[in-house]
């Protein structure tokens, strides 16, 4: 294990970032660039958590052997809890475990079906070439609405991605195709069965009442979930206190991550996440490299 570098890092932040995205899902940067930035930021623990894919993990692990940081395997699985789409970050798991392999295959099938349905709906709306473009993509399972929007802009069929999300791809629009994601309980089991830590991602973002959020966290803990994200940029103090109380009530650890996607997110930077409260056990204390 590498020697801790917390003392060298900016004291306003924890020297970790356990939630970000690369080109393998909806991020803008390659794995190599993300790891270079993580090392430059003097992070001790770092993870790339792409949506429903493990494609970048082998590259990240290999590169991390030459970096002054501990790379932690990561993923962000899509799941459902009741009528809500939620996300669970998996950390420090075996990407080659049977549970991980089966999870990738199941999520890939769901994403491929969704991409094809979006393409069909858009072509009925008058957009052209979407299905043909999809047929040329080698990783259709990683394609989401932002990638389809980028294709339509590049092909001159729209002026911007923002315009497309307002008109046809955003919530409630024709291209907002729902996917049959697995139940939250099943996703937690995937991560646990692969030896990892299951973390409820950004619980403050879900549009639900405090009572609903409390029930979601309670169910997550009952299913075997181990941590919730608390060290996240932009969480208001009242919400942070609520998350801390929920973590303490259900004996959950805390995790930290920027959810960095690209440099246009000017309100955050890789590795700049607020520290966890001192009375919350960090999830990284349970990592196999810790």
From TrEMBL:
SUPFAM superfamilies: PHP domain-like
Domain Polymerase/histidinol phosphatase N-terminal per the UniProt entry, residue ranges: 16-81
SMART domains according to UniProt: POLIIIAc (SM00481)
InterPro entries (UniProt xref): PHP_dom, PHP_domain, Pol/His_phosphatase_N, Pol/histidinol_Pase-like
A Pfam family hit: PHP
Coiled coil, from the record: none
Source taxon at top rank: Bacteria
Protein name listed in UniProt: PHP domain-containing protein
């Amino acid at each position: 294990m590498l020697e801790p570098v917390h003392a060298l890092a900016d004291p306003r932040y924890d020297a970790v970032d356990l939630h970000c995205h690369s080109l393998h899902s909806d991020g803008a940067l390659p794995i190599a660039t993300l790891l270079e930035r993580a090392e430059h930021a003097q992070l001790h623990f770092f993870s790339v958590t792409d949506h429903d894919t493990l494609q970048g993990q082998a590259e990240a692990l290999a590169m991390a052997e030459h970096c002054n940081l501990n790379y932690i395997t990561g993923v962000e699985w899509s799941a459902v809890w009741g009528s809500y789409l939620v996300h669970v970050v998996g950390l420090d798991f075996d990407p080659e475990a049977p549970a991980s392999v089966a999870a990738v295959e199941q999520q890939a099938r769901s994403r491929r079906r969704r991409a094809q349905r979006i393409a069909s709906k858009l072509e009925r709306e008058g957009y052209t070439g979407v299905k043909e473009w999809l047929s040329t993509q080698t990783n259709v399972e990683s394609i989401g609405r932002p990638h389809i929007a980028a294709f339509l802009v590049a092909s001159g069929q729209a002026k911007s991605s923002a315009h497309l999300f307002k008109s046809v791809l955003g919530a409630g629009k024709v291209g907002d195709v729902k996917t049959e994601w697995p139940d939250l309980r099943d996703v937690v089991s995937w991560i646990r069965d692969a030896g990892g830590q299951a973390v409820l991602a950004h619980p403050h973002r879900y549009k639900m009442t405090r009572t609903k959020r409390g029930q979601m966290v309670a169910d997550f803990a009952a299913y075997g979930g181990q941590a919730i994200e608390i060290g996240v940029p932009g969480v208001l103090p009242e919400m942070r206190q609520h998350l801390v109380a929920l973590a303490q009530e259900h004996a959950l650890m805390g995790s930290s991550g920027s959810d960095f996607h690209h440099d246009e997110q000017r309100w955050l930077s890789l590795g700049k996440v607020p520290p966890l409260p001192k009375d919350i056990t960090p999830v990284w204390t349970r990592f196999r490299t810790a």
